[in-house]
Amino acid sequence: MEKSPLPEAFLSFLEENGIDPSIYTASDSTPRYLRLKPGSEGELEEIEAEINCKLEKVNWLPDFYSLPPDVLINNSKSYLDGKIYGIDAASGAAVSVLKISPGDHVLDLCAAPGAKLCMMCDLLGDSGSVTGVDVARHRLAACRTMLQKYSLGDRCRLFVADGTTFSLAPVRVESVSRSCESAFGGKDERFREWTSRRPWKERKRAAKAREAKSLQLVSSSENPELIFYGRHSGVIGLGKNELYITMTDLEVSYSGYDKVLVDAECTHDGSVKHIQKFEHWGWKTLQRRVLDAERTDSLTLKLLRNGFRLLKVGGLLVYSTCSLTVAQNEDIVEQFLKENASAELQEIEEAEEWPCKSGRIPKTLRFDPLTSQTSGLFVAKFSKLAT
C-alpha cells in the first residue's frame, strides 16, 4: 500500500529544524535491535534458529544485535523466557553514556516504557540501586512487568510520581531484616518482601487513593506511590517515614543520585514509526501533537532541572529526547546551562566510534535513521560541579 505524502505543514516544520524528510521513508530499511541478556551468549545459535534469523552483532555497542524490521520476536521462547528484549541501539547508547557501575545509585526520571530501565539494572550488577519514576501508573506497571519477566528488579524500586517534583533520596544503607507485624498495617508500618498478592484491605485502600487522584482530590504534597521494590532495593524493613525522606539541596550534594537519566517527554518526532501512525490517526492531529512543540518545552526543562537537582556533586546526568527539534534539544540545553553554574556539558568520548553526528551545540549527539540506522535521538551529558 502506497504511503500518503507528508503534509506541507510538517515539511515546513522539518525544514525549520534542518531535518531531512527522507528519514521518514528510510525507516522501512532501518533494522530493529535487541539486547541479549548477559549470560545468554552461549545460546545465541539456538535463539537464531528459533526466530529463523541471523542476528548481526552491533560492533559499536556491547550486547546489542540487529535484525530485519519484519522479523518478530514477541512469540519466541527466548523472548518469553527473558533472554532477549527489544531496545533501539540509540536508546542503548544513551544509557551507556551514564557509565553505570556496581554500587551506583541510579535515577530514571521518566522510566516508561522500561527497556532502558532494564538495561540499567543489567549494568548495575549486585550492588547499588535503580529508582524508576513515571507519572503514568499503567505505563510504570508495564515497567514492573518487564523487570519481573527478565529477573532484573532485585535492586530496583518504582514510584508513580511527577518527575518535575520527585524528591526522594536513594536508599544508601543496605536493608536488614526487621520483624514487623504487617507490611502496610499497624502502628509501625514497615515494608516486607514485595508481592503482587496484596491483602484485600490494602488493595481497597490503594484503589480509593487512585480514584481520589483521578478526581484531583489528593494534595500535590502526597507521597509518591510505590508500586514495586526488589529484595535488595533497600526498601525491605524500612518504615514509611524512613522511605519517604526528601533531600535538601545541601544533602543532595553528598547523598543524591550518582547517575540520572532524563529521557524527557517530547513530541516524539524522531520516532519515525510514531509519525507514520498519523497516516491512520489523521494528519490534522499532527499540529497539536507534534508541530506545537512549545507545549512540551516547559515540561522537558522542568524535568531536566529536577533531575539535576537530585544529582550528587561529581555525578553524571544524561538528557535525551526522541525529538529532532532544536527547541526541545539544543535550546533546552543552552537555557539550562545559563541557569546552572554547577552544570558542565561533558564530551561523550565513546561517540567517536558511533554512527551519529554532532548536535548544533558541541559535545551533544544526534542519531537518526539515515546517519545511524536507528530511531532519532538527541543526547547530552552533564556533570555536577561543586559550587
From TrEMBL:
What the entry lists under InterPro entries is as follows: MeTrfase_RsmB-F_NOP2_cat, MeTrfase_RsmB-F_NOP2_dom, RCMT, RCMT_subfamily_9, SAM-dependent_MTases_sf
GO MF assignments: RNA binding; RNA methyltransferase activity
Q: Which Pfam families match?
A: Methyltr_RsmB-F
The coiled-coil regions, if any, are: none
Q: Is Methyltransferase given among the entry's keywords?
A: yes
The SAM-dependent MTase RsmB/NOP-type domain is annotated at 1-385
Any one GO BP annotation for this protein = RNA methylation
* Active-site residues per Swiss-Prot or TrEMBL entry: 322
Query: Residues that bind S-adenosyl-L-methionine, according to the entry?
Result: 134, 162, 263
Alphabetically sorted, this entry's keywords are:
Methyltransferase, RNA-binding, S-adenosyl-L-methionine, Transferase
Spell out the family assignment given in the record's similarity comment: Belongs to the class I-like SAM-binding methyltransferase superfamily. RsmB/NOP family.
Q: What is this protein called?
A: Methyltransferase NSUN5-like isoform X2
Q: Which organism is it from?
A: Hibiscus syriacus (Rose of Sharon)
